[in-house]
Write a structure and sequence with these properties.
about 600 residues, alpha/beta, 7-stranded antiparallel beta sheet, globular, binds fructose -6-phosphate
Length: about 600
């Protein structure tokens, strides 16, 4: 959702900024731009280059020489104003002195725009960001020092922001501010970086300073100073991040999505390491910060997440009900936060997020905490806002996920919920034997995923056939329903084909009317106690001329209820949905490839949804 990068140091800034933007492109990719300061040039003390489209379009627009060792850059995901060069960041003040890049939304920008226009300032873009450049310039013109001018401008803003600002008359620094959108500093040797996330700077340093909401920082080549809106100095120490450049490269795969799907056997194994307690048949989850007595105290579990994370949350809720016999449900965090939810002290709130920066999920955390509830997180991105604000949690350790369509992080969420359900179950009535059964099932998952990935060619064939249909259904019953929802989501977001999920049981209550030879159905049909019912539903589809691609278990007799079968190995019934989801990742992926779509960067989307 917009990526920010900044550089101050001895190197030429432009290449550092462009490389950083390339790594941040997953955050937004409708336009990009950089501003570089060059105090040695009287003709061009600063230069701004912006382009509609990808970072590669920006690169193509750059002049052969763009000298300067201080700069800021941005890759955009449009919120206010269409994707275009004039709406691309950096935005520049009326006097040319100030450049600004911004991630977030300025809620009072209409009022600020009107005020600036009334004062005779001409606005040249449709964005909410541009006002910030003018506000800072006005404060500078009033005689304030650069840092004070940024503080004074920010005091006039309502909303969320990560801001990086330059001033032509202070060409040795970048001033940044954070409220509700991620921002960190990278500490190099005689050089400093600013970035929305560490991926942008990992080639240069592994030392980062995670800024908090309300933080300002003034960044020069030899260091940084952090302070608050009241000009109080704050102490922010650098931490070492565990991220390598290789993790951000394609490594021989055609797409990041493909790479990430194939990383799962190894990454799940890594996630489980040290977390399974054979002695007591439970999970070791110290990060939850809840001892067994506290875990027992909860009489209900409420799971909150957005999009695919919410679907895995639904799956998690059924695991918790199955294994711990505690009532559990999942709700989109994006709805929860707006409905004045009743927060119960006896409910354990669990948020789930890959990026740890999803604004709706973060606000849900705050809503729970403000009302005195306990909220823990299943989060992938270490040090992210959600990870830092929750009362405890389980890190997913999936490693960086670059493709916009989430795959491996979702599998890790499923495994994370299984661990949580196991821990909750074992402080209640789940027997030691059942605990051991789940542990054995979890240990089998990495190998079983590898087995499913071994059938990729067959899955690619099925995907190609499905990609030819203008519309399709994904259906599943009870534990299979979240699998169907996620399958449909993956398919639609990268193929742009209409894919809709239904509970299998609901088909005959309306949607069956749509079944025809043109509308195939992907049916989740595991070998569980609902199989007979699922076969009946599939036959009803077949009787109306619809094709059925069944995702099922070996040995299941489907007869003519399915036109094609995809098999996944059996695990424990509670854990089966994790594995049943894997073929849907490959169906979506290969359908998008067959259609020639831009798999890793689907239109209109961004990886990290840090706006409302
Ligand atoms: C779909 C997808 C999204 C995310 C959702 C939540 O492939 O990636 O639906 O699951 O935006 O994102 P996180 O998990 O970062 O909170």
């Amino acid at each position: 959702m917009c990526g920010i990068v900044g550089y101050v140091g001895p190197q030429q800034a432009a290449p550092v900024l462009v490389e950083g933007l390339t790594r941040l492109e997953y955050r937004g990719y409708d336009s990009a731009g950089i501003a570089v300061l060059n105090p040695r040039s009287t003709a061009h003390p600063s230069r701004v280059v912006r382009a509609k489209g990808r970072v590669r379009d920006l690169e193509a627009a750059l002049p052969a020489r763009l000298a300067g060792t201080v700069g800021i850059g941005h890759t955009r995901w449009a919120t206010h104003g269409e994707p275009s060069e004039r709406n691309a960041h950096p935005h520049t003040s009326y006097d040319g002195r100030v450049h600004v890049v911004h991630n977030g939304i300025i809620d009072n920008f209409h009022a600020l725009r009107s005020r600036l226009t009334a004062d005779g300032i001409e606005l040249t873009s449709d964005t909410d960001t541009e006002v910030v450049a003018h506000l800072v310039a006005r404060e500078l013109a009033g005689g304030l020092a650069f840092e004070d001018a940024v503080r004074a401008a920010v005091a006039q803003i309502d909303g969320t922001y990560a801001l990086a600002v330059t001033d032509v008359q202070n060409p040795d620094r970048v001033v940044v501010a954070r409220n509700g959108s991620p921002l960190l500093l990278g500490v190099g040797d005689g050089e400093m970086f600013v970035a929305s996330d560490a991926a942008a700077i990992v080639r240069h340093t592994s030392q980062v300073v995670l800024l908090d909401d309300g933080d300002f920082a003034s960044v020069t080549a030899d260091g940084f100073r952090t302070f608050t809106a009241d000009e109080e100095q704050t102490a922010r120490a650098a931490v070492t991040i565990d991220l390598t450049v290789e993790e951000l490269e394609l490594g021989g795969h055609a797409h990041f999505m493909h790479k990430e799907i194939h990383e799962q056997p190894e990454s799940v194994e890594r996630m489980l390491s040290g977390r399974l307690d054979d002695r007591f048949g439970t999970a070791k989850l110290d990060g939850l910060n809840l001892d067994p007595r506290e875990l027992r105290r909860f009489s209900r579990v409420k799971i909150l997440g957005c999009g695919s994370a919410y679907y895995v949350g639904q799956l998690g809720a059924s695991m918790i009900e199955d294994l711990a016999r505690v009532p559990a449900d999942a709700e989109p965090a994006s709805e929860f936060r707006y409905r004045n939810p009743i927060i119960e002290p006896s409910t354990l709130y669990v948020v789930v997020s890959q990026s740890g920066e999803t604004a709706d999920t973060l606000f849900a955390v705050r809503e729970v905490q403000r009302k005195g509830g306990t909220v823990v997180g299943l989060v992938n991105a270490v040090g992210s806002s959600i990870a830092r604000e929750v009362d405890g949690g389980i890190y997913l350790h999936a490693g960086p996920e670059v493709a916009v369509a989430s795959t491996k992080a979702l599998t890790h969420m499923g495994v994370g919920f299984a661990l949580l359900a196991l821990a909750l179950g074992r402080v209640r009535d789940l027997s030691f034997a059942d605990g051991k059964r789940i542990i054995a099932g979890l240990r089998a998952i990495p190998g079983q995923i590898a087995q499913i990935l071994g059938d990729e060619e067959d899955l690619a064939g099925a995907a190609k056939e499905l990609s030819e249909a203008p519309s399709l259904f994904f259906i599943g019953r009870v534990r299979g329903y979240p699998v169907a929802r996620e399958g449909a989501q993956k398919f639609k977001e990268i193929t742009y084909r209409h894919a809709e999920a239904y509970p299998t049981s609901e088909l005959k209550h309306g949607p069956l009317a749509l079944i025809s030879p043109e509308l195939p159905t992907v049916a989740i049909m595991p070998a569980d106690d609902l199989l007979e019912r699922n076969i009946t539903a599939a036959q009803e589809i077949r009787a109306r001329g619809g094709a059925v691609v069944a995702i099922t278990h070996p040995g299941v007799e489907l007869g003519d209820a399915a036109t094609r079968r995809i098999e996944v190995p059996r695990n424990e019934v509670e854990l089966d949905p994790i594995l049943l989801t894997i073929p849907t990742q490959l169906l979506g992926y290969h359908a998008a490839v067959a259609l020639g779509e831009d798999v890793d960067r689907p239109r209109n989307l961004a990886k990290s949804v840090t706006v409302e």
